[in-house]
Structure formats: structure tokens, C-alpha cells
Amino acid sequence: MNTYKTLKTLTETPGPSGFEQDIAAVITEMWTPYVDSIATDRIGSLIAIKHGSGPEPRPRLLLAAHMDEIALMVKQVETHNDQGFLRITNVGGIDIRHLYGQLVTVHGKRDLSGIVGSLPGKMLPPERKDKPFGWEDLCVDVGLPADEVEKLVSIGDFISFRQPLRKLQGKRVTGKALDNRASVAAVTACLHYLQNRTHAWDVIVVATSQEETRLLGAYTSAYAQRPDAAIAIDVTFGKGPGTSDANTFELGSGPVLDLGPNVHPGMLKALQDTAKSLEMKVNIGTHSRYSGTDAFALQVAREGIPTGLIGIPLRYMHTPVESIDTADVERSGRLMGEFIANLDDKFLDKLAEGMMKED
Amino acid sequence: MNELIKKLTEAYGPSGFEDGMRDLIRPEIEPYVDEISVDAMGNLIAVKKGDGSGLKVMLAAHMDEIGVMVSHVTKEGFLRFTNIGGVYPHTLMGGRVQFANGTIGVVHSDRLTDRGKIHPLNKFFIDVGATSREDCPVGVGDAAGFVRPFIAQGSRLTAKSMDDRIGCVVAIEAMKKLASTPHDVYCVFSVQEEVGTRGAMVSANGISPDVGIALDVTGVGDVPEARPMDVSLGKGAAIKVKDAGMIAHVGLVKVMKQRAEEANIPYQLEVLEGGSTDARSIQISNAGSAAGCISIPCRYVHSPSETVDARDVEASINLLVEILSKPIAL
Hints:
The complex is a heterodimer of chains A (359) and B (330). Chain A has helices at 3-12, 21-31, 146-152, 178-193, 211-214, 216-225, 265-277, 295-298, 326-342, 347-356, and strands spanning 37-40, 46-50, 60-66, 71-80, 83-91, 103-107, 111-117, 139-141, 158-161, 166-167, 172-175, 202-208, 229-237, 256-259, 283-286, 307-314, 322-325. With 359 residues, chain A is α+β, with helices and mostly antiparallel strands. In chain A, the strands form 3 sheets. An 8-stranded mixed beta sheet of chain A has the order 1-2-12-3-13-16-14-15, sandwiched between helices. Chain A is globular, with a radius of gyration of 22 Å. Chain B folds into 2 domains: 2-65 and 160-325, Aminopeptidase; 67-146, Beta Barrel (Elongation Factor Tu (Ef-tu), domain 3). Chain A binds chain B through residues 17-19, 21, 41-43, 45, 73-77, 87, 89, 91, 136, 154-156, 210, 213-214, 216-217, 219-221, 223-224, and chain B through 210, 221, 228-230, 241-242, 245-250, 253, 268-271, 273, 280, 283-284, 286-290, 330.
């Protein structure tokens, strides 16, 4: 598997939360050779199942990586001198500071390329200079007269960012939607790894929908699949100028294994043991309440699911220049693959025993 | 229909205290459905069976309204209170509220030193005419709703609690008009929407619908200095694409638009930046439902003078009937 190529395909495909059909189609093509069944569910999550070799009924592990990305939506169509402009709102956690000057695709009757524009600095009144933009200061311009825009664009049309994946130096890459296509790539690497390994458990691989808005796909797919254990994989904060020392991680320093209330300590221990057996360096991250990932939702589905959480360090989160080290993607894939290969019929008992043991 | 709107909007029913509303709605819907039941939280669930070829569709219109709850009675007989749902202090001053036992109270606040600035809610009080704790007809934990008569002027309809009694009216009128449907339609009159869409959450978990459609009010952008929004009074039923709590199912939005266009029902597309509806809870229930919302555009939401347009109400009823009469291809 060529990680850069995989990431390029994944990140450059649009997949706003709630509008995931294009990215789901791309991932379906990517995963089909590795799995026994694959289908999207009612709310747009992609669910693939790879059967294990153990005797039936086999325990089941669910791997969740969200495939949706933050995006924009058309709120109003506005006319100015017969030209059409789009007023916008956010889909997911948009940092308004990066919007001015972005290239976008408006998913109207057909895809239209556009830009996010505003007044240039020299035209701003003095009291507005050097101040962050508000939503009312921004508009999307697709370069068409108002009547054409009216024909092609409706209120509620999705707008995705258009940014190619680029190589930085070494194994670093930068682009949009690495949150969380980096993890989708890692899961793909895991499936690739499992081609040459047997595993006893069934593996349910889910590319979840609408994580950025409400963890929707994690809640619903975990309910529908009722797995025995689950792992969420998502990006986490990379170190850089201005970051604090706590809970930030150097790009290229390996997967981050999270400890905290959304995680079953036994799952963390098992992931750590797997890393040790691979002689892979990992980081330990912590969350105190809400991990901000699918793990939060997976954990409370049905009667409760022992859940682990893997993070890939990423800088400039929720911008079109999200940056990661591809080595972390490859390592996370290998770690999950080896973890799955080691799952046996004692695993759940060991998890339960671990919970009861007094140190 | 105005008679029904008047009856439902003027009735008492803050979140958690919907019994009276349920008793009012039950006889209105019962003749038009096959089964009717009430669950443990108090949701009224009216079921109209399909011919077996369709989906399980859940409708949700909430019976509850915002209100206030007494938190303390002073020794002089004044009531301090807290909010039930999104109650804003500036909508209360000089208004009247009514308790379950019929007691009416007038609302005022501690003296304003700066009339340009209104007090927070904890400096407001209710005067029910009592002179002491002993002769006060209501006490801590009693809930009250706004009092305000329904008025119709031209096509504009104003009342307290249009949110969401108008949604209840849409549900009732649509079930009346619905001759036959391929779908099993679960028409839920939900409780506790205003405090976190809690009634719809449990009814959706019980029903496990394929499709969930909330019937609720939405904001508008057509009043002075409004937050920019492309929904206006009188321009038709609003088909929700997104609100602050969810993104509607794109396939369901498409079906709704298609039905409206085929039947020449006026509609508008809604992107609401603040607030959400029962559809949010239905969407995330169990294994997930295709969720959407037919919204009735409404001015001055969460004030005692919520205003809608009769033509939009009509369009919403007709759109719902069209959607339920035909197969839903997601």
C-alpha cells in the first residue's frame, strides 16, 4: 500500500458531514478487496466485515474511523450588481480565521468551483482592520451572474474545501481532511496487514458519518453491530510553536494511545502490549472527560462496549493545511493489525479480570 | 382549523406537565388512527397502519411549551422562579403566567436602576396576589406557562406556544386528510422537547423508525434587523436541511422537495443556525433513522406572541400528506 497515494485519494475526495456518499464510494473501492461484505447504512456510515477464523459464534471487534470532514453550507444567495454570491454557515467546527482566500467546491446541481472572498484589507474601515472576519463578512463567489447561480445553487447545498494533498519534507504531508482520512488510511493499512495474518475474531470496520457534528455514525453503527470490543481512531494534537507540553505529540513520534474515561484500561493495556511486541514506540495521551472522538459514543452503545482510542498526531487541526507524518499512519495500521491478529477466545475474560483485579 | 389552533395554543402544558395537553389532543387524533397509546414518559403515540409495502415513519410534534417553575416563595408571598426551557427575561416583564390549578400570576422584576438594561431571570418574581407563604395558592415545584389569547389577523396567526402546538395541529390535520398510506405511521405527540428533545428520544428508541420527521416551528429572516436567514412568513412550508443540532438526511430532503414540486406546494429550504427539534433525537436513536423536519416559519419564537402564517400551515399539512401517501425512496 502506497500511503501517500492512498491519502491523496482520500483527502481530495469531498465528504462533508451528512454528505458522505462520494467519500464512501472511494473507501468502498479501497476496502472491497480486503473484506467479506461492505455496505452503507441508512445514515451514511460505511460498514465492512472481515470474518475471522475462530469457531462460531465469533467475538467481534469494531474499528471506527470517521470519514466525514468539516465543511460549509449555503445559507443565502445574494445578488450584487447582477452577480450571484453565496452567504455561508458552518458544517462542524470551522475556525473562521482560515476561510478568507480558500478554494472551495459548491455541490450544487453540478459541482462548481469557487472561492471564499471578502473585502481586501485596504478597503476595510479603520475599526475593522486587523480584526477577525465574521460570517457576515464572507461570501462564496463561483464567478457566475445571479440568474445562473439561482439555477445551479440552492439554500442548503454543501460546500467542501478544495485543497490538494502536498508533500512537505521527509514523510510529512499537508492538506485538508487529514482529520480524519489519515485514520481511514491507517485502517486501510490495517486491512492490508491482515492479508498475511490469520485472526480469530470477526472485524467490523466502520467509516463513520457525521462525527464532526454529533458522533452520529459511531452511536448508530455500534448499536446496530453490537460488537464485543471497539477501537476508535482519530487525529490528535501535534506539537508546534505555542502548543502546551500536555497532550500534544511530535509528528512522527508514533501512535497516541489514550487513557481516560472514554477508554477501557484493559484495551489500552492490550494495545500497549501489542506495541511492545512490535517494538513500536507509542505515546500515551489523556482526556479528562470527553475525548472528542467516536470513542465517547462507542463506549455507551447498547450495554456498554470496552473501547480503545488511537490518535495520529496532526498540526493545524480543522484547517486546509492539516499536517501529519505518514509514518504515524503506517504504524497505527500495523498496530491495529497486530492487535487484531492477537485477539483470542480469552481476551474478553482477561479484560473482565483486569477490571476486577486490585493492585 | 383556527378553532383547534386556539384550543391547543391557549392550553397549559410546560415541559414535564403535559397531561392536560395529552387529554386535549387524544380525542382529536383518535378517530383517524388504528392504535393509540401513552408511554412511561407521557408521549402520546397514535399509529396508522400502512399496507405493508412501506417504511416505518415516525412523526413528532411536541406538546410541551416553555415555562417557569417556582423555586422559592418569599414570606410576603412573591414567587421566585427558574426557567423551563429557553425562557428569555425580556419576554416576561409585565406578562402573565398560569399554573396548573388555574392560578394566574403577573411577572415583574426587582427595581431597574437602568431602564436600558433588563435583570437576569433570578431577579424576576411572580405576584399571584398572595400576602404570605401561607395564603399562596402555589408553591415550590409548581410550573406555569404564559397566558395570552390566540388572535387571527388576515392570514397571520399569533399565540403563545405556537411552538409547537402548531406542529400538533399539522399532525392532526394531516392524519385527518391522509386517506391511505403504504407506511406504518407513528404519530408521536412528544413531551419535554423544550428541555432537550427528551420525549422523542425515548419514543424513537421504542419505535425504531426508518424515517423520522419532526413537525416544528423555525426562525425567519424577514423582520427588522433579523439574523440573516432565507425563510419568510407566507412563502410556504420550510424543508429543513440543517439546524444547530443536526443535518437532515439528504435523501429525505430530496423526497420532500420532489413531493412539494409535484403537488405545487409552496416550500422554502431552511438552514437554521440556532436551535433544533425532535428530529435530532430520532436521527440518533438505535441504529439511526433518516431524519428530517417540516418546519412552520414562525416569528418571535419563545415569546408570548409567536406568529405564523395560515398559508404556511396549510402547505405544511399538504406536504406531509403528500410525503406519507407515496413510497419514500431514500
